[in-house]
Amino acid sequence: xxxxxxxxxxxxxxxxxxxxxxxxxxxxxxxxxxxxxxxxxxxxxxxxxxxxxxxxxxxxxxxxxxxxxxxxxxxxxxxxxxxxxxxxxxxxxxxxxxxxxxxxxxxxxxxxxxxxxxxxxxxxxxxxxxxxxxxxxxxxxxxxxxxxxxxxxxxxxxxxxxxxxxxxxxxxxxxxxxxxxxxxxxxxxxxxxxxxxxxxxxxxxxxxxxxxxxxxxxxxxxxxxxxxxxxxxxxxxxxxxxxxxxxxxxxxxxxxxxxxxxxxxxxxx
Length: 269
Hints:
Layout: E1 4-6, E2 9-11, E3 17-22, H1 27-37, E4 44-48, H2 65-85, E5 90-93, H3 107-120, E6 125-129, H4 130-133, H5 137-144, E7 150-157, H6 164-176, E8 181-186, H7 191-207, E9 213-217, H8 223-227, H9 229-232, E10 236-238, H10 252-267
Parallel strand pairs: 3-4, 3-10, 4-5, 5-6, 6-7, 7-8, 8-9
Antiparallel strand pairs: 1-2
Helix pairs in contact: 1-2, 2-3, 6-7
């Protein structure tokens, strides 16, 4: 498995890196959360832009001023986040309702927003949903790779855990489309589902992975998957410095303690 270096953070080597989300709904909340995160042991910061209510209409029309206003507000906010976060890597994520997010955009709007953010130079990584990009995913990744960003291709299932073969297949498809990292997040209905997710990560890493893998089983039932990634091959995990962006996230400081302990065991120290 290859590693990916974003600024000074190497994803895919050593202990899993910690990503902390910003989920503010107003500009003040977003900037305040960013300032607080700089006090925590976060390797990467994720801006969940679908939470940004001030910039979003419920169903923005790409042909109206409201969508153009949204794009401008998003770009301005990303640039301000860059100033606050300094050299800390920033991941831009607009999570759609279909994959557990707060808002819905048309495929054209989704692509326009992500390309605009990539072109701004404010972010280091961009999350692209496998099923939202659809058949255009490979071409869209080529567009984004014209800019100095890495692409995290993602697939989320908030209803269930697909079969191991299905999850491995999705990760392979994302990798084949040109993703720099692949992400799989699923909802367990039983403890066996957590093991199925971890088994898929092992299968991907041992037989297919050319990129770092990010994987987690959500909710309280799946919390162990957020902690033991280094043992199975997940290169990054998400922790909360305030409000969680997904079920099962734990506080970033406690998360780092556990990850460090496991890392010491893996390294035999």
